[in-house]
Amino acid sequence: MFTVTYAQLNAWLTAFLWPFVRILALVASAPILGHASVPIRVKVGLAAFMAVIIAPTLGAMPQVTVFSAAGTWILVNQLLIGLALGFTMQIVFGAVETAGGIIGLGMGLGFATLFDPQSHGSTDVVSMLLNMIAMLAFVALDGHLQVISALVMTFQAVPVDANLLSAPGWRTLADWGATLFAGGLLLALPVVAALLIANLCLGILNRAAPQIGIFQVGFPLTMLVGLLLIQLMLPNMIPFFARMIDNGIEEMGRVALALRPTP
């Protein structure tokens, strides 16, 4: 007769549940995998499949009951780690959307917005265009596989335990948030500079020949210049996105190391 003790059942449950929570938190918050268009069942199933593969390689788990106070705290720790890692990669795409917002504002397309199911709000069309290009580059460069690989490595950097996560990890994540503005401004800089020159030329033209009607000419001209610059930038966007994705993957490792509890 096959019998299972409570200790064995608890060991099997903890070996699967705690890694599953960290993986599910990352899947729910990471780019592409955590998109609102992906059904929740798919996210849960993907996280469970990954946990079944990864859990046997992690070694022994803490000898703690799942439903105890220490076990609940471990669940919270794994949830926070997964969310921090997923948010680290989301900042990369946030920088791309910031660049699109700056470009759209300079082109006069700041009022042209569409509903974004990811943010549950309105996003301008240039931001959505650049975000789609970045997502295609992310998939083409196996960014989703690199994110999963970086997640697996974090189990060695931050083992599953009940110790309090270190504050420097959150500070590292906050410092990485500066990329949201620095990377976005760097990506939008060529278009912003070209639009600035175009607006200066329009201002000089308005002073020289006021009868032209600069308000009728200015909007289509700035929009045309912006679209032309975006088209010219496309070949160089993919290497820029690749560099930002690599930086995001490396930052995931740095955030995980900084979150490691101090003994």
UniProtKB/TrEMBL annotation:
The chain crosses the membrane at residues 12-34, 40-61, 73-93, 99-117, 129-158, 178-202, 214-234. It is a multi-pass membrane protein. GO terms for biological process: bacterial-type flagellum assembly; protein targeting. Pfam families: Bac_export_1. Its main location: membrane. It is found in: Cell membrane; Bacterial flagellum basal body. The keyword Transmembrane applies. Keywords: Bacterial flagellum, Cell membrane, Cell projection, Cilium, Flagellum, Membrane, Transmembrane, Transmembrane helix. One of its GO terms (cellular component) is bacterial-type flagellum basal body. Role in flagellar biosynthesis. Belongs to the FliR/MopE/SpaR family. This is Flagellar biosynthetic protein FliR. The gene is fliR.
